[in-house]
Specification:
- By secondary structure, this protein is mainly alpha-helical.
- It contains 9 helices and no strands.
- It has helices spanning 3-27, 35-91, 96-114, 120-128, 131-144, 151-176, 184-204, 209-232, 245-253.
- The longest helix is centred in the first third of the chain and has 57 residues, at 35-91.
């Protein structure tokens, strides 16, 4: 499900909890929401609020780790692409076709991932299973087929194969993290706790416009925070989409 869809579900659940608290206020005796009972409710809300803050902190750290990992992986991939092209350039004219194939592959990746046609995640899902893998294997095989007529070319060929292997390893590592790192049970538990908290807040809040507006602001703030966290956990789409700058820079250097 998309981050926006998740945030709408969170918003609806918490809003329902808020109105549930206001409805319960009409049915509960006054002595159960005042005095010692009110203090006990506040302690319970404080405990759940602390646990909720811990879960939110874990979700932020997990999403930030995913984002940084994918961004660093993209930077490493771009660096290796440039390095592979330079090694092939030193190899000589025999590697011209390989360099052309490398540039076409990166150009296609940039166009598909950042050209508005699809996100990198959907591209990997659509092509990574076979199409992108076939293209990568074809590139690897072309490097293997280079003749290596002298010692220098054989050394460069070995280096090119090593870099191509590193590119494949980085690409598959990024692909393995495409689904994000926040487990669904974390989100479910978080929504339940937030619903309880807003229900208790609404139960204890006075019946006036100021308290209602404040509670609504809390609902919007919490659901928008969940939205931003889930967006951060999907770095190749949405508002926090990783820039294509590293690959664009690499593409500009290829073939020189």
């Amino acid at each position: 499900m998309s981050p926006l869809g998740i945030s709408f579900i969170v918003f609806a659940c918490i809003l329902a909890g808020m109105f549930l608290g206001r409805v319960l206020r009409d049915f509960l005796p006054e002595d159960q929401v005042t005095g010692d009972s009110k203090d006990a409710i506040k302690l319970g809300v404080g405990l759940i609020g602390t646990l909720t803050a811990m879960v939110l902190g874990l979700m932020v750290a997990s999403a930030k780790g995913t984002y940084d990992g994918q961004r660093n992986g993209l930077a490493q991939l771009s660096t290796n692409v440039i390095l592979l092209d330079r090694v092939l350039a030193h190899y000589g004219s025999d590697a011209k076709n390989v360099r052309t194939e490398l540039k076409n592959a990166i150009s296609d990746l940039v166009k598909q991932a950042w050209g508005g046609e699809a996100s990198l995640t959907s591209l990997m899902e659509a092509k990574g299973e076979r199409g992108m893998e076939d293209r990568y294997e074809a590139l690897f095989e072309k490097i293997q087929d280079l003749p290596g007529r002298n010692e220098n070319q054989r050394a460069l060929k070995t280096q090119a194969l090593k870099i191509a292997t590193d590119i494949g390893q980085t690409r598959w590592q990024m692909f393995s993290q495409k689904d994000g790192s926040i487990p669904t049970p974390f989100v479910v538990v978080l929504v339940c706790w937030l619903t309880l908290i807003l229900a208790w807040f609404s139960l204890l809040a006075p019946r006036n416009t100021a308290s209602l507006v404040t509670l609504l602001m809390c609902v919007v703030a919490v659901s928008s925070a969940v939205y931003l966290i889930m967006e951060l956990d999907q770095p190749f789409q949405g508002v926090f989409q990783i820039s294509s700058g590293p690959l664009q820079n690499a593409l500009a250097q290829l073939g020189r």
